[in-house]
Amino acid sequence: MDAGTEAAQTVGWDEDGVRRTAAWRSGSGARPPKRVAPADDRMAADIAYKLVCEGTALLWRGDYHGARQLLAALGRRVDRKPPKRGATARETFHLHRQARSRRARVLGMLLVPLETTPDGSYTVPLRRAPDVGEACTEAYGPAAGPAGACTLVALRELQGVIGAHEWRRKGVPVEALGGDRVHPYYGVFSPVRGEYVDLVARAPLPVPEDGAEAGPERLTAFDIGTGTGVLAAVLARRGVGRVTATDLGERALACARENVAGLGVAGTVEVVRADLFPPEEAGRADVIVCNPPWVPAKPTSVLETAVYDPDSRMLRGFLAGLAQRLAPGGEGWLILSDLAEHLGLRPREQLLEWVAEAGLTVAGRLDARPVHSRATDPAAPLHAARAAETTSLWRLRPAHTPQ
After folding, report:
1. Which of 164, 251, 304, 395 could disulfide-link 2, Cβ–Cβ 3.0 to 4.6 Å?
2. What is the C-alpha separation between 141 and 118, in angstroms, rounded?
3. Apex 81 CA angle, 75 and 86, nearest 5
4. Mean per-residue pLDDT for 96-117?
5. Chain CA centroid to CA 291, Å
6. Tens of pLDDT along 43-102?
7. What region holds the Methyltransferase small domain (predicted)?
8. Gap between the Cα atoms of 368 and 370, Å rounded
9. What is the pTM of this model?
10. Using alpha carbons only, what angle is made at residue 180 by residues 174 and 183, rounded to the nearest 5 degrees?
């Protein structure tokens, strides 16, 4: 999924008796601040915290490491008041999200300048600032405007851009691919939680109705919402003869194409732009896999669309179209965490009702327990739901053979 592109917006502020303006940049879709004041290493953290809480963004003019220290100090002050626990898991979830949204809003008020370099890249014109050119070009594309043109970006976002560049450069090792690495782009969901990938690696491949002795090379597959392309690559490595991977985001499509090429499966995997299923001319597939966002809630930024799916749109769309795109004897593999059930956001009965309404039946299910730190840390928000979470691969078949 793409991190999104920002609209052409500007920010204005007074500095040294002069009215200044700069373009606003936000890959996460944040709105530009209405008030901006210059700040540097002389500003106390308590004063800075008061200003940002009142809605004044701070444009940093001091040492870059001083900005990092101030951001950490602001974070400590926000965290002094942890979110309340609700009477139900659902209420606790919404209170937690409200607190996270406020934290992101407050920390997003510390800004740094980005300037265009003569070669169309980026630089941060602050003392001891890191080289951000390659990271920002990956996230935002080539810099716009003449050399010296200035844009403003939240330091917190810039740190995320730098971190994403390191993830992309180093890659994420995937056990199901023999330890080979997948290289996620900025804003594309990274396979750091490997349990859903492992489920695809060990689920039994279906046997076509006309080929009981056939090997996997006769099979075709669709990977819906491919992201990095990791699941398409796993299917190809398992011997599936042809895989069509779809996504809507241009960044995700580029990411998937790079990864399938790097993993040596570009001859098997075709990456195409589509909303859910590939065009009708792709026909039907023996395996159709989908790992939709797991939580039916509204994302508060473009980056959250990999996790939050309002009204379960992608999940319901996948189920509704699945039966008509499966080949005889084929299976749909729905990979879904039950976290939403433990949070009271979507009961299991609702999921099974959608499955039945789509003319599908459950042929089997494989389960995996998460191993990430939030599932084992009693102090983590939503620990009870995280500790009970199970990720499942639902094997779905048409209740009746499609005509």
Report:
1. 251
2. 15
3. 125
4. 93
5. 12
6. 999 999 999 999 999 999 999 999 999 999 999 999 998 888 888 888 888 888 888 889
7. 221-335
8. 7
9. 0.89
10. 75
